[in-house]
Amino acid sequence: MTTTSAEYPTASGETSGAISGTAPEPVDENIWLEDIYGEEQLAWVREQNARTEELLEDAEYGELEARILEVLDSTDRIAMVGKHGRWYYNFWKDRENPKGLWRRTDWESYRAGSPAWETLLDVDALAAAEGEEWVFHGASFLRPAAGQPHRRALLALSPDGGDANRYREFDVETRSFVDPAEGGFDLPTAKGNASWLDADTLLVASTAEGLPRTSSSYARTGVVLRRGESLASAERLFEIPEDHMMALLAHDSTPGFERTFAVDWISFFEKRTSVLRDGDWVDIDVPADVNLSSHREWLLFRPQGEWTVEGTSYPAGSLLAARFEDFLAGSRELSVLFTPDEHTSLQSWSWTRDFLLLNLLRDVSSEIRVLDPQRPGTDVAWASSVLDACPPLHDVNAFAVDDEDDAEEGDSVGGGDGGADAGADSRAGGAGNDFWLVATGFATPSTLTRGTLTRAGVDGVVSTHEVVRTAPSFFDEGAYEVQQHFAVSKDGTRVPYFQIAAKDLVLDGQNPTQLSGYGGFEISRTPAYSGAVGRAWLERRTEESAGAEGEAPHSRGGVYVVANIRGGGEYGPSWHRAALQDKRHRAYEDFAAVAQDLISRGVTSRQRLGCVGGSNGGLLVGNMLTQYPELFGAVSCGVPLLDMRRYSKLSAGYSWIAEYGDPDVPEQWEFIRTFSPYHLLRDGVEYPETFIWTATSDDRVGPVQARKMAARMQAMGIPNVWFHEALEGGHAGASDNRQAAALQSRSQHFLWRALAGRAA
């Protein structure tokens, strides 16, 4: 039986780190599994995979995987597009194109409903021709000269779905890569970013060709890369300390507002941004925890904590504006665009040419406001109006179509005609004030709407819009009801959660229930339609069971629950900071409170309740496994952090110290150890059935923590512990629809077998 005390003696009987002043590092019998690609280690992975596949991949699993793949491969789902010039670009995967097609069409064709797509790059064909399992990670266009079409782009391609990309120059007119022998840009695979400075120059932050990297495994240096140069010989433009998270370089090519930026990303929540002026970097003088963004003449600020400027304090999560050049010159005149309250938070914003769209959450339901910086002919600044497009308990996001499209009517590079009734008025000014609206709900297939914002005198900003696309239905949504409930956490905090269940739900504790959460990095869990969840969980039925005395036999469908716990961003930065570092336990107390509320309300019971989470959500459910085993019958734990003593030494883990704390610091290890699942396992505990899954190519969290947790649990003799490791897919665990369907099916089928397969 494996020893599971929190501290392990070394062979000499002493704990490591006593002399250096670092926290002692427990002896780890599974550290050998940290060699990701070692022959012995991969043999262990193959053995575990075979064991798990034998358990899970039965006939029912095969049917489920096929039904989920049908959802993912559906040719009727919305093809989301991004506009560049007159063209609308889309990346598409389906059964015939598992790695995907990068393609484009024009607005008239897209709007008509059956677009005539022009394929620019067939990634499957590219992978076959080059013998590399390419995963498409996006494209960034070079701004063309005035009146010219967008032609050159940098394509980001990952060889395995991980975070490291190879950037290659592509010509959309010839539909081919620009040959490096002829000067085409082709950057070696590495972590980093690349931005166009001009037609012959890139700004690059990279870890390739011997350039230094940070302790977090990201780029430390930014360079100016000219055609024909190598990264190793390129001019160094910017460098950050090794213990900072990453360096970024970016160029804003908006005519009249051209600016080059450097970002010293100190930690996950701290940045220093500088702008290049006359060959020197000029710091934008704000605290490191104030987020910045620029648009033409405007500079926006979103403080993560309270920010005091010349005697005035602005709360965390507010949004402020200043004129860019005035602020750089020393002015501190700030306009307040948004102030949070106990119910409302700012999630994101997007500029059209003339207006600012704010995406808000009010108790985790969307609200969108439109701000006008300066109404011509008036002294009204930042006038605000509500965009009436947000049904309750839905997620709705508004963002610009193309804020730089100022084309006149008939201009071949325009293409914006806004909403259904906008007509020539919209076309006359191009698509600069057009916006996309994407609305979704747990029981509402996504809808894509296009609208146009215009000034209407005293009425302020008005919107005309039309529905462009509606996603298909994949299950009987009308049979289900979405409810929002609030659980009370240990410290009295009200924690919202969504419950999706059949309208005739019986509250007798017998409903198989899947509880999902995240609770970290200020990421919000909002309503979202999932045909896979509908088919894999909501519509599945238990075998008919005898009812209570006097009641008829019953069969139950699944209940799906999403918890909005602290550590996330549902109520802004304060909600996130409430569960940072030594306060991490609050996230886990919140999640446990939701579980307890589901049980006390009669929705489910311990033997019917399971939880699922990935990445930081994997750490969350790992803590449910080890700290609240009495609440759950099964745990599905994906691409997780679990060994919190060594997480900062693995993959990109060092970058998350601001979130969790530094385990090398003795005082911080004292609280980190309280939420390190790998060190919380104990003998004599009845643990839930456990499925731990990861990916070999995950270069963000890495597979080793999942490996070690499964190995330790199995060595302890804990029953029903299963492990699976996909080879590809990076941190997502899947790089194509087939892999995604397999991943989702394993997790869903495991939970259903564990929770619904038991007798009532």
Overall pLDDT metric: 92
Could you name the ranges where pLDDT drops below 50 across 5 or more consecutive residues?
Answer: 1-19, 408-428
CATH topology of the domain at 38-69 and 479-542 and 553-756, which one?
Rossmann fold
Number of strands: 39
Structural commentary:
This protein has 760 residues and is α+β, with helices and mostly antiparallel strands. Among the domains are: 38-69 and 479-542 and 553-756, Alpha/Beta hydrolase fold, catalytic domain (Rossmann fold); 288-340; 346-472. It is built from 15 helices and 39 strands. The strands form 9 sheets. It has an 8-stranded mixed β-sheet with strand order 32-33-35-34-36-37-38-39, sandwiched between helices. Strands 5, 6, 7, 8 and 9 form a 5-stranded antiparallel β-sheet that branches. α2 packs across α15 and α7 (531-538) packs parallel to α15. The radius of gyration is 27 Å and the shape is globular.
List the helices and strands and how they pair.
Elements: H1 39-56, H2 59-72, E1 82-84, E2 87-92, E3 101-106, H3 107-112, E4 118-122, H4 123-130, E5 135-141, E6 152-158, E7 165-171, E8 176-177, E9 186-190, E10 192-198, E11 201-206, E12 221-226, E13 235-239, E14 246-252, E15 259-267, E16 270-277, E17 280-283, E18 290-295, E19 298-303, E20 307-309, E21 312-314, E22 319-323, H5 324-328, E23 335-338, E24 344-351, E25 356-362, E26 365-374, E27 381-387, E28 395-400, H6 423-428, E29 434-441, E30 444-455, E31 461-470, E32 480-488, E33 494-502, E34 513-516, H7 531-538, E35 559-563, H8 573-577, H9 585-600, E36 609-614, H10 616-627, E37 634-638, H11 657-660, H12 666-672, H13 677-680, E38 689-695, H14 704-715, E39 721-726, H15 737-756
Parallel strand pairs: 34-35, 34-36, 36-37, 37-38, 38-39
Antiparallel strand pairs: 1-2, 2-3, 3-4, 5-6, 6-7, 7-8, 7-9, 10-11, 11-12, 12-13, 14-15, 15-16, 16-17, 18-19, 19-22, 20-21, 22-23, 24-25, 25-26, 26-27, 28-29, 29-30, 30-31, 32-33, 33-35
